[in-house]
Amino acid sequence: MDIQNEIWQDIFGRRQFGLDFSDTKLVLTDSNLTVPTIETSVREILFETYGFHSLQLASAPGLVAEYYYEKTQIPHSLIIDSGHSFTHILPCLSGKICVERSMRIDVGGKIMTNFLRDKLTYSQYDLRQETKVVNEMKEDVCYFAKDFRQEMEIFKKNNPVINYYLPDYNLIRRGQIKQSLDSESFKDLSTISLGVERFVLPETIFFPEIIDCDQIGLKEAINRTCNGVFNYNLFGRYMLKNIIVFGGNASIPGLKERL
């Protein structure tokens, strides 16, 4: 809570946004399984230290589930929240998340970025101090293969490789894919070559064993979640037809098509 309180001190203490907190309602997102003592501490700090008028604590998937239900009136859905540190699979009944039937995979954007950073550091360029650059590289070049085995066969035959400029913070402040019509001034920029990594890296969500993570993958987690929701025929099979994907990893191309 100490680090979180420092963030709040900066946001609510120094900036304040010109608000009268005693007349301000606050919506704060938390994790799906917040420890009760943490929730109590959060309420105490926000009410007693900052004096907010009222507070609603809700998980981001919970808000997504409620919005989707109100918008579509589809009663049962499955939410996949794939973010920085984990991937949650959450069944949703009538706009409410059934937390006790949810599953978690300890694979998210952070572990993928670190895996790519370490691999490239070993094979091409020392990027140990450039985690942010590698994360942007992942966002720019990676994709989910519609059929992983087929994609691997294509790669073996054609060996398609792209080159990626590393930022020098003079010509470019963010890395970018090398193009044939790039400016002549780019020729002195350092580059990284990326091939099979582009689709193997996201595959870790489906097969965590790629990064030596002893857990089930996303497909199996989805099946177990839907089969574990009370009555599969009444709820589970409808969830498979209404999958909502969000979080940072949802922006990697190909995930929705793969599902």
From TrEMBL:
<comment type="similarity">
    <text>Belongs to the actin family. ARP6 subfamily.</text>
</comment>
<keyword id="KW-0963">Cytoplasm</keyword>
<dbReference type="GO" id="GO:0005737">
    <property type="term" value="C:cytoplasm"/>
</dbReference>
<dbReference type="InterPro" id="IPR043129">
    <property type="entry name" value="ATPase_NBD"/>
</dbReference>
<protein>
    <submittedName>
        <fullName>Actin</fullName>
    </submittedName>
</protein>
<dbReference type="GO" id="GO:0005634">
    <property type="term" value="C:nucleus"/>
</dbReference>
<dbReference type="InterPro" id="IPR004000">
    <property type="entry name" value="Actin"/>
</dbReference>
<dbReference type="Pfam" id="PF00022">
    <property type="entry name" value="Actin"/>
</dbReference>
